[in-house]
Design goal:
The protein is mainly alpha-helical. It has 35 helices and seven strands. Strands 2-3-4-5 form a four-stranded mixed β-sheet, with helices on both faces. Helix 10 runs parallel beside helix 12. The longest helix is centred in the middle third of the chain and has 22 residues. The termini are far apart.
Length: 833
């Protein structure tokens, strides 16, 4: 048996030398081959080399080799998209590696193995199995190659499903964060794969202690990008991990964390961790400022402003950090993109933080350099931010941005919020583009939304009309009709208009001198009447005065609600002079013109309103135009007084002829629309349209004849002839105007008496005799200030010269103002970290 066994062993040896090697030898050789494959793949520094190797060796590559190749292709492809400064650009398909036949073959082989191992078991012949490491490498490489979830790539779909179903409670932390980052980067579909994201949250909860700062940062960024809401217990674990490793975070990791928290609208737990995080970020940017990118700074500011609901507390706690960030912006402004500037300035405005003039000038210079190569969508929030910060970037930049509207429809889709922000900023700057076609383009974009945008925000709707009214720009009938129809639709929905939007809308109609018709006014009046109990003082004054100036008298129950609110405010709050002045005007017009009589009957309130009105009227401005008309009358021998005070002290008339109840109103450009030269903004027009004006109504009902001298007629007279003949032309013009409008000839009004106390001479004599009157020069204008001139609390407007119609609403505080006159637009979309 021994010899037989020996013979059998010898025969078997001879047989193996002619055939296969022993199993353990073959396994060792395959294992060595797979290891060598990985070593070769890892050394490649060019995508072409990886693809060539994979194409030639697909049949001798195992799961690890294939996953490594996919990962390497992605990594090398992303480095090929770095910009000139060496910073990585977003993952793209440049070059279009995913369309390469070798790449497709690689992914086809992966798909083959994934299908073959769907039950999760290892593949035969030592090909291995798909664990968390391999699956995350494939997904990460796919993201860097520019594959998206919308591509419906079958290999990627299998990888996602395999990860979601993976039975592993201890995956490497880096693999988990890589999966999250890759899926968030690739995600372009309408819905996320909830099972995958929930599995990743489950893993985060299990292995949080294993995360490095980059893993924490990438994971939070991914959850936020996907719009996924984390469980409170998961947030608490992330908070503990952040606190534990604060000293090890880098600039991009810091900014990703705060950006993610802001995007998810969630706070760290406990809240003190956020303060600690900001403190460490401040220390980092002070120590190594060059390691912070402009994107990190803008994202950080955006996130702080978005998260913080109490800017005063934040400025007190982290004011030095804000100072440091602004110093960085000032030094590195030329590295910011337009969106980064918008995020930065939006944040500062939201935090009610006023940056230095140098920072604003540096940001403006950068914006000017970028303005011709960006879209309106990128500039509208910048405009809003500049207006909120009360910093005018200048005509050049405003014009550059405005001209972008001329290419709307070719390259840029503009949301109504962006139109609203643009017009709101122009209104706050008091600026309109010189090219009228630009404004028409803006209004055309707005009308398109009025007619067809199902998601239109009434805030934007009201803000647009408010801006046009503030700019004294009267839109055409087509625009007004489109606005009216959409406003009716929104009003008939359940409270689609905010209180502020309602008040802004009716105020704007009053300022524009446009009555939108009984149907719309009745809808607005009903909602205002139902909500007036909740209005602040300015909302009450602006809306009730708009009713009066438009001559629309709402139902009696609405008026009664306003009366009750006015009395309640008077006895419970401090009312500023501007609001008392507007109450005086509204009360006067209701008493004289409405069927309901006066709004206010309380004697003390009436006295206070009258006193406020007179204080406002005690400040007058005499323009160069005003003086020229007066001097011409003097040369004609027409006795007159400048700024004649009516007997009851209610009004100061521009010019009044002595001995006659004839007033001459010298109407400068502010009395007219900016886009329609002869369109009067206040008072009745020749065609019967227009508004009630308390001043003109008073003169008409008290026996005065009023003659109006528009600035454009006066300018034409002065421009027609040389200076030597101007005096005669002016006199002839005034004589004709007096005859045409008042039926008076020069013989009726001229006098041979001494003219020393007439016109400007007489005015100076009266002013010098009155110790309570001060006269100051302001350019070509004289400003006359009475001792009883109004004194308002900070933050309110003082009426200009005399109150004609509704005064402009108070200018808004930078952000989140609860009063009227400003609407808070949606913030700009943050840059993706």
């Amino acid at each position: 048996r021994g010899r037989g066994a020996a013979r059998s062993k010898s025969a078997d040896s001879k047989k193996r030398t002619r055939g296969d090697k022993p199993t353990n030898v073959r396994q060792r050789e395959r294992s060595d081959m797979y290891v060598k494959n990985n070593q070769i793949i890892a050394k490649f520094d060019d995508v072409e080399d990886v693809l060539d190797f994979a194409s030639e060796n697909l049949e001798i590559m195992n799961v690890v080799n294939l996953a490594t190749a996919a990962h390497r292709v992605g990594k090398l492809n992303s480095t090929r998209t770095r910009n000139e400064a060496g910073a990585p650009a977003p993952a793209t398909r440049h070059p279009a590696v995913v369309e390469d036949a070798r790449f497709r073959a690689l992914f086809e082989k992966l798909r083959e193995y994934l299908v073959a191992s769907q039950n999760g078991s290892p593949l035969g012949k030592g090909l291995g199995r798909f664990n968390a490491r391999e699956l995350s490498a494939i997904l990460w490489g796919s993201a860097h190659c520019g594959i998206t979830t919308s591509d419906d790539d079958p290999t990627v779909a299998l990888v996602v499903r395999r990860i979601a179903n993976l039975d592993d409670d201890d995956p490497p932390a880096q693999n988990v964060s890589n999966v999250l980052w890759a899926y968030a980067t690739m995600h372009t579909s309408k819905k996320i794969d909830v099972e995958l994201v929930q599995k990743c949250e489950y893993w985060c909860d299990l292995i949080m202690d294993d995360f490095a700062p980059q893993g924490i940062s990438n994971s939070l960024w991914a959850f936020a990008t996907l719009g996924y809401t984390l469980k409170p217990e998961t947030i608490a674990k992330f908070s503990q991990a952040i606190r534990r490793q604060l000293k090890d975070f880098k600039s991009m990791e810091f900014s990703n964390v705060v950006w993610a928290l802001a995007t998810m609208k969630t706070h760290l737990d406990p809240l003190e961790v956020f303060d600690e995080l900001l403190d460490e970020m401040h220390a980092s940017i002070k120590a190594v400022p060059n390691m912070w990118s402009s994107q990190s700074v803008s994202n950080t500011l955006w996130a702080i402003a978005t998260l913080d609901g109490e800017p005063h507390k934040l400025r007190a706690r982290h004011g030095d950090y804000l100072n440091t960030l602004c110093m960085y912006v000032e030094r590195k402004a030329n590295t910011f993109v337009c969106q980064g500037l918008a995020n930065t300035l939006w944040a500062l405005a939201t935090l009610e933080y006023t940056p230095s003039m140098k920072m604003l000038e540096a940001a403006t210079a950068r914006w000017s350099a970028l303005a011709t190569d960006v879209y309106i969508s990128e500039c509208s929030n910048l405009l809003w931010s500049y207006a909120s910060l009360r910093f005018n970037p200048g005509n050049e930049v405003l014009t550059q941005v405005a001209e972008l509207y001329l290419r709307v429809g070719q390259h840029d889709e503009v949301a109504l919020t962006q139109v609203s922000n643009t017009l709101w900023a122009w209104a706050n700057f008091g600026w309109l583009p010189e090219d009228p076609s630009i404004v028409e383009c803006v209004l055309q974009v707005a009308m398109k939304h009025f007619k067809s945008d199902p998601d239109l925000q009434t805030q934007s709707l009201a803000n647009i009309l408010w801006s046009l009214a503030t700019l004294r720009f009267v839109p055409g009938d087509e625009f007004l009709q489109a606005f009216r129809e959409r406003a009716l639709i929104e009003l008939r929905e359940d409270e689609r208009f905010s209180d502020q939007g309602l008040c802004n809308t009716i105020w704007a109609y009053g300022q524009l001198g446009v009555n939108p018709g009984t149907e719309l006014m009745s809808e607005i009046a009903s909602q205002l009447g139902a909500r007036v109990t909740n209005f602040p003082t300015q909302g009450v004054t602006n809306s009730i005065l708009a009713f009066a100036t438009l001559g629309f008298w709402p139902d009696e129950w609405v008026v009664d609600n306003y009366r009750a609110k006015i009395v309640e405010m008077y006895y419970s709050t401090t009312i500023s002079d501007i609001d008392l002045t507007q109450f005086f005007q509204a009360n006067y017009l209701f008493e004289k013109c409405s069927p309901y009589g006066p709004l206010v009957t309380d004697p003390q309130m009436i006295e206070d309103m009258l006193s406020a009105w007179k204080r406002g009227s005690s400040k007058v401005v005499i323009s160069q135009f005003h003086r020229e008309v007066s001097d011409t009358l003097t040369n004609m021998g027409v006795p007159h007084e400048i700024e004649y005070i009516t007997e009851d002290g209610l009004f100061s008339l521009d010019i009044a002829l002595k001995g006659k109840k004839l007033a001459i109103e010298v109407d400068g450009p502010s009395h007219f629309a900016r886009n329609i030269q002869n369109r009067r903004m206040s008072g009745k027009r020749p065609d019967g349209t227009g508004t009630y004006n308390i001043r003109y109504h008073y003169l008409d009902t008290n026996g005065w004849t009023t003659v109006f001298i528009p600035w454009y007629d006066w300018k034409q007279v002065c421009d027609e002839e040389s200076a030597t003949r101007t005096t005669g032309r002016r006199a002839a013009f005034l004589a004709k105007t007096l005859y045409d409008d008042a039926g008076l000839t020069l013989m009726d009004v001229a006098s041979d008496e001494d003219m020393s106390d007439s016109g400007m001479s007489g005015f100076h004599i009266r002013a010098l005799a009155d110790d309570d009157v001060s006269v100051a020069q302001d350019g070509s204008r004289l400003v006359i200030q009475g001792a009883e001139s109004q004194r308002h609390p900070d933050g309110t407007f003082k009426p200009e010269m005399k109150s004609v119609g509704a005064s402009v609403p108070k200018p808004p505080a930078p952000v989140r103002r609860t009063g009227y006159g400003m609407l808070e637009p949606s913030p700009s979309t943050p840059s993706t970290p």
